[in-house]
Each structure stands twice: as structure tokens, then as C-alpha cells.
Design brief:
The chain is globular, with a radius of gyration of 19 Å. The chain contains five helices and four strands. A four-stranded mixed sheet has the order 1-2-3-4. The protein has helices at residues 10-13, 25-32, 36-39, 84-106, 112-115; strands at residues 14-16, 47-54, 62-69, 75-79. The chain starts with 9 loop residues before the first helix and ends in a 12-residue tail after the last helix.
């Protein structure tokens, strides 16, 4: 994997949307710090994370985490957990899984099965 000049980090890329205040940034940053290793493969200026909550504290609260990375489809994860911390962690964990899935789909060259094509002597591939 090639090194990225300005790797993305949660601290630089996270924007807090509706339902969160700047006072929430510290505890959210701590919970999301595990994403730094996963985001490091992307450029900081091409990566955006947006976290928001609808009806915070209410029984039907809904947490959304949107990840935008240039050149890749937008990833939206959600959680309806009643506990806000649990909902944020649920959305974070789902994002990590989906980033891993996205990377696998985008970069099959790391899959030996797809990379190794048997060459049969005497086969003429020209048409």
C-alpha cells in the first residue's frame, strides 16, 4: 500500500451535525480514534465524516454517520440504540466494516485468487 502524504484522521475529518455540540467532540473523538488506522489510507482533504443524531435523548433517537471519500461511493451507517454512546459505537463499528468491504471491492489486487491466473503452455490468447 502506498503511503499517503496527508493521511485522514478522525480529528481532522469529523464534523458534528444536528444534535451534537462541540462539547461532545472529546468523547466522540475518543470513541472514533479506532477509525484512524482505517482512514490513514485516504487523503485528509478528500475525506469527510459527519455524525448527527435526530431526537437526541428521546426513545426513538436515530444516529447517522456519513463517510465521504473522493472516488468512492458514500457510506451511510445508522443506529437506533436507545443509549447514545451505544448508538455512536454501533454506527462507528458498522462504518469500519463497510470501509473494509469497500476496500476489498476496490482493490482486488490484494486477493491472491484474483491475481494469480494460471498460464497454460501452448495456449494462444491472440484472436
Amino acid at each position: 500500500m502506498s503511503a499517503v502524504a496527508n493521511p485522514a484522521t478522525v480529528e481532522q475529518c469529523l464534523r458534528l451535525g444536528a444534535g451534537f455540540s462541540q462539547g461532545d467532540r472529546n468523547w466522540i473523538g475518543e470513541l472514533f480514534s479506532t477509525l484512524d488506522a482505517r482512514l490513514a489510507g485516504f487523503h485528509e482533504d478528500a475525506t469527510d465524516l459527519e455524525l448527527s443524531v435526530k431526537d437526541r435523548g428521546a426513545k426513538g433517537q436515530h444516529v447517522s454517520l456519513i463517510c465521504r471519500i473522493a472516488g468512492r461511493p458514500e457510506i451511510v451507517t445508522t443506529s437506533s440504540e436507545e443509549d447514545l454512546h451505544a448508538a455512536v459505537m454501533d454506527a462507528r463499528d458498522d462504518l469500519r466494516r463497510r470501509l473494509n468491504d469497500s476496500k476489498t471491492k476496490q482493490e482486488p489486487r490484494h486477493n491472491r485468487h484474483l491475481r494469480d491466473v494460471p498460464v497454460v503452455p501452448g495456449d494462444n490468447l491472440e484472436v
